[in-house]
Task: inverse folding
C-alpha cells in the first residue's frame, strides 16, 4: 500500500494508473476509521481496480468553537485497517500541502447548504465542496464512494458533480450501525455509557416515524413532534433539528405523499450526532 503526502506525487500516480487502463475508485475520509468507513472501502472495490483512500481532517469545514483540534485521530491504526482491506494507496496530506499560502478559492452552493446541518454550521458545506473538488482534481477518480449517514453531504456532492461536470460516478453507500442501532461515527467516542444510551433515541425515533407512516400517519408535523418528545425524554440531549424533506432538494415536506428523507441532528453531551432514514408511504 502506497502512502502519499504530496499532491504532485498523487496526481502523477493517478495519471500513471489511468494510462495503464486502471479504474480509480476513491473513498475520502477524515480518518479515525471505523466499520462504517471500511464498508465504503469494500463498496468501492466493486467499482474499479485501483482503490485510493484519503485521510485529511479538513480545517475549512470546521467553524469557530467546533472540534477541529480535538477531532479524534489515529493515523497508524487507520493505515493498518486499510492494509487489511487491500487498499492500493492512501493520500494523507497536511493542511499546508492542501491549502498552501494565500489560498482564496472556494466552491459554494446557493440552496442545498441552507437546510439541515448547513443552518447551524454555515461554513461546513463550503469547506466540504471545496476540499472534495480539490481531492477529485488530485486523485482523479472514475468513481467516489460516500456514506448515506452524511446524507446532506452526499446530496451536495452529487449536485456539485452535476453542476461542474465532473466525469465521476458518485456512489451512496448505506449507513452502518452498531449492534444497538447507533449510526457509526468517529464522534461516538465522545459518549460515555449513559450518553450512549441517550444517543440510541436518534435511531429509535426514526424507526418509530417509519412505523407511523406505515400506519397511515403522513402529517410531518405530527411525526416530528413525536420524534422530538422521544429524544427529549432522554438525558443530555439537545435537538439541533428534526426535518422531513424532499430527498433531492432537501425542502421541507408537509405531508408524506411520496418517499421522504427524515434527518436529524442532536447534541448528546458534547457529541453532535446525525442520522437519517427514508420514509416510504
Result:
Amino acid at each position: 500500500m502506497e502512502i502519499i503526502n504530496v499532491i504532485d506525487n498523487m496526481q502523477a500516480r493517478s495519471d500513471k494508473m489511468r494510462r495503464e487502463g486502471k479504474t480509480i475508485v476513491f473513498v475520502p475520509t477524515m480518518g479515525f476509521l471505523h466499520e462504517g468507513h471500511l464498508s465504503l472501502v469494500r463498496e468501492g472495490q466493486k467499482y474499479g481496480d485501483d482503490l485510493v483512500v484519503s485521510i485529511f481532517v479538513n480545517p475549512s469545514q470546521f467553524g469557530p468553537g467546533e472540534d477541529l483540534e480535538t477531532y479524534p485521530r489515529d493515523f497508524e491504526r487507520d493505515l493498518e485497517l486499510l492494509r487489511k482491506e487491500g487498499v492500493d494507496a492512501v493520500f494523507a496530506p497536511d493542511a499546508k500541502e492542501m491549502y498552501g499560502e494565500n489560498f482564496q478559492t472556494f466552491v459554494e452552493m446557493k440552496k442545498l447548504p441552507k437546510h439541515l446541518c448547513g443552518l447551524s454550521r454555515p461554513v461546513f458545506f463550503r469547506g466540504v465542496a471545496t476540499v472534495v473538488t480539490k481531492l477529485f482534481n488530485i486523485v482523479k477518480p472514475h468513481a467516489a464512494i460516500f456514506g448515506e449517514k452524511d446524507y446532506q453531504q452526499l446530496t451536495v456532492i452529487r449536485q456539485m458533480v452535476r453542476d461542474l461536470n465532473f466525469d465521476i460516478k458518485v456512489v451512496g453507500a448505506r449507513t452502518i450501525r452498531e449492534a444497538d442501532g447507533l449510526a457509526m461515527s468517529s464522534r461516538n467516542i465522545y459518549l460515555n455509557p449513559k450518553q450512549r444510551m441517550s444517543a440510541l433515541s436518534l435511531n429509535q425515533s426514526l424507526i418509530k416515524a417509519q412505523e407511523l407512516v406505515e400506519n397511515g400517519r403522513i402529517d410531518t408535523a405530527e411525526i416530528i413532534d413525536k420524534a422530538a418528545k422521544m429524544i427529549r425524554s432522554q438525558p443530555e440531549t439537545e435537538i439541533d433539528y428534526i426535518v422531513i424533506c424532499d430527498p433531492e432538494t432537501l425542502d421541507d415536506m408537509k405531508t408524506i405523499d411520496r418517499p421522504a428523507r427524515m434527518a436529524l441532528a442532536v447534541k448528546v453531551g458534547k457529541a453532535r450526532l446525525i442520522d437519517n432514514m427514508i420514509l416510504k408511504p
User: Anything to note?
Assistant: Residues 2-173 form a domain with the Rossmann fold fold (CATH 3.40.50.620). The chain has two domains: 2-173, 190-279. Residues 94 and 100 are 10 Å apart (CA to CA). The beta strands are 2-4, 24-29, 50-55, 89-91, 143-147, 169-173, 237-245, 260-268, 271-279.
